[in-house]
Structure formats: C-alpha cells, structure tokens
Amino acid sequence: MNMGCYRIKPTSILCVLLFIFYLCMIDVKFMLKGEYASKVLMSNCQKPNERHTLAITTITRNSASYIKEWIEYHLLIGVDHFYILDNESEDGLVNILKPYIEKKTITYIPWKDDSYRDAQLKMSLNTQQKGLVYALSLYGCRSDWIALINDDEFLLPKGNRTLKELLKDYTDYGGLAIGWAWFGSNGHINKPDSLVIEAYTKRRNDLDILYKTIIQPKYFKRMKTIHYPVLESGYPLVTEHFNIVSTIPEHVKKFAYKLNDPTNDFIQVSCLKHLLSTYP
Q1: Residue 173: what are its φ and ψ, rounded to 5°?
Q2: Residue 92 CA from chain centroid, whole number
C-alpha cells in the first residue's frame, strides 16, 4: 500500500496564516483601545492634597452584611483608602458606607453595566474589568499602590513586617502578584453570625495557579483580565520572590497568566469566593 506523502495545499497554509494574523490584530485592536481609554481618563485625574500610600479598588454588589468587616480589617493592616464601585446594590450598601465616605476613607462610585460606555471605554471588557480600568485611570494618580481584589478577599501579610514595609521591596517593579488561597465553607450550612475571618479558617492546601495583584498605578496601561493588568514596559509584574509573571497572549495559551510556582511566604490573598452570598 502506497501511503505517499500528504501534500498540503498552498491555499490551506495561507488560510492558517491569515487566521493567525486575524487573531493577532484582534489582540492589538483591544490593546490600543484599552490603552487609549486609560490615557484619556488619566488626563482627568486630579491629585489631592493628601496622597495615599496604599489603596484598594473593588467592584461590589449587595455586600452590606459583611463589607464593614472587610473595610475595618484592611484599615488595621495599613490600607489608607478604598475606591468602591457599587454595581447597583439593593441591600442598603451605601448606608453602611456613608460614615467612611464622610471621613473620606472611601471614594464611592455608582457603577452600572452600561456605565461610561462612550468613546473612552468602548473596549472588549466585562463589567468588572471596565470598572477597574475606570477607577485605576481616574484615581490612580492619588495612590502609590493599589490592590485589585474583591470584597470577599482578604490581604494577609505574614511575618513581622507590615504590608507597606513589604511593598518597599518592590518599588522597582510595576506590581506584585500575590498567591491566591481558596477557603471552604468550614462545614457551615447556614450563614454564621460570627466574623468572616473567624467563621472560615479551613483552606485548600495548595494555592491557585492564578493570582491577585497590588500594582503601582503610574505604570498601568490596560486591563487584560482581572488577574492581569498590563503595565509599562520595563516595569513587570513579579511574584513575591521577584520572578516575572508570564505575558503569553491569552488566545495562544489557556490560563496563560498564572504563577508557575505560587508561594505565600510573605503575603497571600485569602479568598472566600461565593461563600458570603450562597446561604439561604
């Protein structure tokens, strides 16, 4: 039986090359739109008289029952300010936040799914990504560092150094990628009355391959995913052990933005995702 050699038609090769080129152009298109939007918004950023060393930006919805604990916890570990985007909450969240807004601890930003969808923010991003881009670009000039975490995630510095002291080691880099630790239900069937950090103490042994970040917003360019903010050239995102995080395009490799060897020797993000809103 003569197997012969399978000949690939030149037209097939051309189609493959054109398809790859098309994917690359899509990535460049969204990149340019994202960077344009960020630059336009940054031009409106007004530096206040008081500058923050460390802030948190988050987008939230119906978190009135636990947001106060989350805020107070992070104030205790050294966070100076919060940029909170409220995605149409219906549980009186703004009333819980009011004392912090009046003390200027929180910048409160009402946020809808169609918020700011004008020429500045016409990007292929979801609601959360758009919100983070908006907050970083418009308020980033007010803080040296901004953590991009959710309202069910708690930053946990380890050892004897404070979070601000730890960040001093990374000033030559654009941002710090933090190991992501997932916690379980602790066996609770109903929502416990105790504090979140007291009720949930059992976690998965290993860290997730993805991560959350604390970045220097002056180096922010655009948001690739909520786990991967793209930073200025020369100022990479690094792990706590100074390893540069991969930047392989997402359409080339699934889960490209991951930590090859996630650690939490100095700091971790404790994630209680879904636990705070799934009880009857």
Answers
A1: -120, 165
A2: 25
Query: Tokens 């979801």 appear where?
Result: 126
Which tokens in the block code for residue 207?
A: 């860290």
Residues in the chain: 280
Tell me, letter by letter, the H, E, C secondary structure of the chain.
CCCCCCCCCHHHHHHHHHHHHHHHHHHHHHHHHHHHHHHHHHCCCCCCCCCEEEEEEEEECCCCCCHHHHHHHHHHCCCCEEEEEECCCCCCHHHHHHHHHHCCCEEEEECCCCCCCCCCCCCCCCHHHHHHHHHHHHHHHHEEEEEECCCCEEEEECCCCCHHHHHHHHCCCCEEEEEEEEECCCCCCCCCCCCHHHHCCCECCCCCCCEEEEECHHHEEEEEECCEEEECCCCCEECCCCCECCCCCCCCCCCCCCCCCCCCCCEEEEECCCCCCCCC
Q: Are 58 and 150 in contact (CB under 8 A)?
A: yes
pLDDT band, very low/low/confident/very high, at 254 (cuts 50, 70, 90) = very low
| Diameter over CA atoms, the chain | 84
What confidence category does residue 246 fall into, taking pLDDT thresholds of 50, 70 and 90?
A: low
Q: How far is CA 141 from CA 47, 52, 54, 166, in A?
A: 6, 9, 12, 21
Please provide the distance, in angstroms rounded to a whole number, between the alpha carbons at the two ends of the chain: 68
CA 20 to chain CA mean position, Å: 29
